Prior knowledge:
Elements: H1 23-30, H2 34-51, E1 54-56, E2 65-67, E3 70-77, H3 79-103, H4 108-111, H5 117-121, E4 143-150, E5 156-162, H6 169-182, H7 184-189, H8 198-208, E6 219-222, H9 231-241, E7 244-246, E8 251-254, E9 257-260, E10 267-268, E11 271-274, H10 297-302, E12 307-309, H11 320-323, H12 326-334, E13 341-342, E14 346-347, H13 351-359, E15 364-368, E16 378-379, H14 385-397, E17 402-406, E18 412-417, E19 420-429, E20 431-434, E21 438-440, E22 445-448, E23 464-470
Parallel strand pairs: 3-23, 5-13, 6-7, 6-11, 11-12
Antiparallel strand pairs: 1-2, 4-5, 4-20, 8-9, 9-10, 14-17, 15-16, 15-17, 18-19, 19-22, 20-21, 22-23
Helix pairs in contact: 3-12
Pfam families: CP_ATPgrasp_2
Domain Circularly permuted ATP-grasp type: 74-449
Amino acid sequence: MAADGPVFDEMTLADGTVRAPYRTYQAWLDRTDPGLLARRHAQADLLFRRMGITFAVYGEANGAERLIPFDVIPRILSRDEWKVLSKGVCQRVEALNRFIHDIYHDQEIIRAGKVPAELILGNDQYREEMRGFKPPGGVYVHIAGIDVVRTAENAFHVLEDNLRTPSGVSYMLEDREIMMRLFPDLFDACPVAPVNHYPTTLLDNLEYAAPGGRDEPTVVLLTPGQFNSAYFEHAFLADEMGIELVQGHDLFVEDDTVYMRTIEGPRRVDVIYRRIDDDFLDPKVFRADSMLGVPGLFQAYRKGRVTLANAIGTGIADDKAIYHHVPEMIRFYLGQEPVLANVPTWFLRHDDDRAHVLDHLSELVVKEVHGSGGYGMLVGPRATRAEISAYRERILADPANFIAQPTLALSTCPTFVDQGIAPRHVDLRPFVLTGKKTTVVPGGLTRVALRQGSLVVNSSQGGGTKDTWVLER
Length: 473
């Protein structure tokens, strides 16, 4: 899927001038042997293989695992650019936390007519079981990944919010580790803000979320197991935080308290960083056929005996039909104007929007409202007539399940490819943490579309990653 029209290049202006954040890097590149990048690229690939940094691809035979392709040319942001981005994503997450609390309590935003009631109360991600419940500290979203793109006008826009079980932070950390090994001289020359404190900051926020009165709380990471696409990340983060990686059968509930089985006997668990979707957490409350969760976990949660991060029911706020209303949430709850704009979006539940989208399917990107990972999308400019026709039938069968957005001209960043250095489209996922306050690690996961002209950056769809540098001066 190629972009039409002008595209903003992260490194070079239209007149050929190198942008300020890249000038030190360009000077290094000018005096560097052209073969060095190729050698470093091969070394990076070898290091990733040795470290076992993989992800599983759903739908492939034998649960195939792949390396996520890594690019050795960093994506560089200035301090001023990061100031805007970090303020915008933190503002957004603060409003989303307020929104989730509201819809499970007084529902003021519905009564004020700012968000249609049916979008919330009739949504599959709305959990009636959470009505009236306030988690410790009032925090619902402890970890968020906010996908941001830069358009041809050099403006940052939020593409989508990821609040249920956002992934990718392990690649942010490992990308930095690899780059520091391969290019120590660059880090001597460039004042790059560190990201390696993320696991410590995450653990501090999780411990802060523990039920009241618990000194030195026990935190665990709950994974669905090694066949999950993000299992490497689960194991990596647990190891980095120094906490136990557990599966459902490692935990049990007794007297509304969660315990972990250990060789020394049962040990109480205070906080569960869960990487399992709501439906599979507790077979007594949600899906009775789930073998991944812990029977009785929800009752312990409701009784305030354990904290779940992120909270049950947060999926309502990263629903793509709700996304449209986040700027209004910021105004409603925070009394502020949004720092970052949304991407224009059509809602196919609305007759006028649906008519427009159906007339322009070949030009637009259409997504399922609960979709993720690039699955279930129609990328109009890349689709065949047969694919467009089949997708049209899906839309007509259930219009409310879809939204559409323009085919954005995502910014490009210089990328090392087989032919040398060439521009490739990128997005950015900063990771926002909420505890006593809402913060974001400087940088995030830059995803890059490695195929020439492609705008699809998802790793599941052939995209790769880059280290993201935020300059401190």
